[in-house]
Design a protein that fits this description.
7-stranded mixed β-sheet; 8-stranded mixed β-sheet; alpha/beta; Rossmann fold; about 30% helix; GMP Synthetase, Chain A, domain 3
């Protein structure tokens, strides 16, 4: 585990290390929480009676069908239940409740990569969701059934998610960049009854063949799937399977516009979202209805300072948790105008995001450090060409942001006028956990600042003792349950407890990150403590990539580590032992290319190793454990400082270093 404060590598980061940034007076003036007294009250209420704090918020923020009596049921801990005896409907809360005073307000504004545009008002969204919900019903989808979505970033993705929520079906969105095989595994794990996909999606000037991948996934196994609904996005010719496949536009012709929301219990699962862990098999993170929605709503208010005039843009794909909480549920629950873009940030050039901000008068912009770094590298001329004066707040998520990128975001995009909210959270937490309230909390480049009201976060050592010292790293844990927390891993309660709770006797939720707190109590995320990698803000397990490599007939053994990368944060480095002969100096460009394509096929392009080195065997201790730390040191090209005397075969070091 990383416990030391990392070395600062650039002059820039040394200069900004201890700098604090206060929000501009312009921002503060209009922010809904703009004095520290307000924040103090929230924090005091939360610490005096955490349950009551959440109960009050839940009563105020959610439109209940029947109200709950008890906020938290911890009798089955760590399976916590929130607002258990209440009933509600999530789509009602995201759409219907706005029909009174926001019916003609824009709910979704969309632009495609080729410049095609679409707008839906709340009234239109209501209609589209109701219709599609009736389509699902027509195909026999009922409350509790699982529906897999494998879609491009178009309004219909949001419509399909909301339609599932409307009838109490559980959606599981699979990122469109995942391969057929990854899709198949997720469909099977959830035993989905239907798949919603598209004939294709546009990205980077190309068509992503979603339906083809879907057909491949369904060609073997996946016996639970009865229906495939296909959105026409590209209008290309694709094969349709009789009695299984139906086009979206065809299906909605045969249903009514009226679909009463299905009232569900607070704890009814709203969705599953698969994410990588430290074993080869992704976990279906299961979220609740009411608690999840509450987390989405309060963080939209606190962290994104949501207001009715905002044009809010979160660039995340619906395939990730950010695309659930901060695209589909949070903004709509507050009746905001949501902007969506399908496509790459660099088409036709690296100015696209900034042009979109200008053209659509975006006020709040939320993206990932990887995107910021890539666009920063493209130069200031791109953003400088556009009028970014509509922006008032910027956000980042997914990985630590380096101070240099933070400063660029602050200066060149925010014109030193927009606060930056660096938000730490996870698929499992459902909503932001550590993040600033931008009108009140000063920011420091690279720190996600302070835990949000109600979130009892701590840093503990190996024995579970809280670390109070400044700058001393340890395990990041959450000490009290919170409404938007995951409920379990789909079909695997045991793994849920083992992964998140067992480490400290079920007392704390263990996030899997290490962190330190500085002298001002600000949190700095240091990295994962498990075998999870973070590539461009996307989470991948080393084991997952290793099993993909080993599944290739040429490979006997594989070990995957990461090394820092300027653009993607971390980059994947694989050590491979071949069945056949080892190439000289452990490098073989053709074979590497072949294995990269192989991994892309097994998991998806994001999982491709950037570099592969071939060795006769892997460094193992005498007890047979792969020495990952050593491999990481070598991948980073650093001097080996570890004790290698326990190595079974010390001679291997030269090979691993590519010297032989
Ligand atoms: C992991 C969760 C939550 C949305 C996107 C990723 C890392 C997330 C930050 C941040 C430093 C961050 C952590 C975390 N992470 N946000 N602001 N600063 N690291 O969701 O795929 O569930 O990944 O992303 O390592 O555990 P995810």
């Amino acid at each position: 585990m990383v416990t030391e404060k990392p070395q600062q590598d650039t002059i820039d980061s040394i200069l900004v290390e201890d700098r604090r940034f206060s929000p501009s007076s312009q921002f503060v003036e209009n922010a809904s929480i703009n004095n520290s007294h307000h924040l103090k009250i929230l924090n005091k209420l939360a610490s005096d009676d955490n349950e009551l704090f959440w109960a009050k918020l839940a009563h105020n923020e959610i439109d209940w069908h029947t109200r709950f009596n008890k906020a938290l049921d911890d009798s089955q801990a760590p399976h916590y239940r929130w607002f258990d005896d209440g009933t509600l409907n999530i789509s009602y809360n995201c759409i219907d409740r706005h029909l009174i005073d926001r019916a003609n307000k824009k709910a979704i504004v969309f632009e495609g990569e080729r410049g095609d545009k679409q707008t839906l008002t709340y009234r239109e969204l209501h209609l589209a969701v109701s219709r599609f919900a009736n389509v699902l019903k027509m195909y026999g989808i009922k409350r509790g059934d699982r529906v897999v979505l494998y879609m491009p970033m178009v309004p219909e993705a949001v419509i399909a998610m909301q339609a599932c929520a409307r009838i109490g079906a559980i959606h599981s969105v699979v990122f469109g960049g995942f391969s057929a095989k990854a899709l198949k595994n997720r469909i099977e794990d959830a035993a989905a009854k239907a798949v919603i996909t598209a004939d294709g999606g546009y990205r980077g000037g190309k068509i992503i063949p979603l339906k083809t991948a879907c057909d491949e996934a369904l060609s073997e196994g996946c016996n639970s799937v009865q229906t495939v609904i296909v959105l026409k996005r590209t209008a290309q010719d694709i094969p349709m399977v009789q009695d299984r496949d139906i086009y979206w536009d065809e299906a909605i012709k045969h249903v009514s516009d009226d679909c009463a929301p299905e009232w569900v219990n607070s704890e009814h699962p709203l969705f599953l979202l698969y994410t990588s862990g430290s074993t080869g098999k992704p976990k279906g993170i299961q979220h609740s209805s009411a608690g999840y929605l509450l987390g989405a709503i309060v963080t939209m208010r606190w962290v994104f300072d949501a207001n009715d005039n905002d044009i809010y843009w979160c660039t995340a794909d619906v395939g990730w948790i950010t695309g659930h909480t901060y695209v589909t549920y949070g903004p709509l629950a507050l009746g905001m105008t949501l902007f969506m873009y399908e496509g790459a940030p660099t088409v036709p050039d690296a100015g696209r995001f900034w042009k979109l901000c200008q053209d659509h008068k975006v006020t709040v912009f939320y993206t990932a450090p990887t995107a910021i770094r890539a666009l920063m590298k493209a130069g200031d001329d791109f953003p400088n060409k556009y009028d970014l004066s509509s922006l008032r707040l910027l956000g980042t998520v997914g990985e630590p942001i380096n101070p240099e990128a933070w400063m660029w975001y602050h200066r060149v995009i925010g014109k030193e006028r927009c606060p930056i909210v660096d938000t730490w959270w996870q698929t499992e937490t459902g909503a932001n956990v550590i993040a600033p309230l931008p009108g009140v909390v000063e920011t420091k480049p690279g720190s996600c600042t302070l835990p949000l009201p109600g979130m009892d976060v701590a840093i503990v050592d190996e024995s579970g003792k809280e670390i109070e010292d400044a700058d001393k790293g340890g395990y990041l844990v959450i000490k009290k349950p919170w409404p938007s927390m995951l409920r379990t891993i789909w079909g695997d309660d045991k793994r849920y407890i083992e992964t998140y709770w067992q480490r400290f006797n079920n007392k704390y939720y263990v996030a899997g990150d290490s962190a330190r707190r500085d002298k001002d109590g600000y949190y700095w995320i240091m990295g994962r403590i498990d075998d999870v990698l973070n590539i461009s803000g996307h989470r991948l397990g080393t084991m997952e990539i290793e099993s993909a490599l080993v599944a290739n007939e040429k490979v006997t053994e594989a070990a995957v580590v990461s090394r820092p990368d300027e653009l993607t944060g971390e980059a994947i480095f694989a050590y491979v032992v071949l069945k056949g002969e080892r190439p000289t100096n452990g490098i073989d460009a053709d074979l590497t290319n072949e294995l990269q394509q192989w991994v892309a096929k097994q998991i998806g392009s994001i999982a491709k190793p950037k570099e592969i080195r071939y060795a006769d065997n892997l460094p193992k201790t005498r007890s047979g454990k792969i020495m990952r730390r050593l491999l990481r040191t070598i991948a980073c090209g650093e001097e080996i400082s570890q004790d290698t005397s326990t190595l079974e075969n010390e001679a291997i070091l030269e090979q691993l270093q590519g010297k032989q």
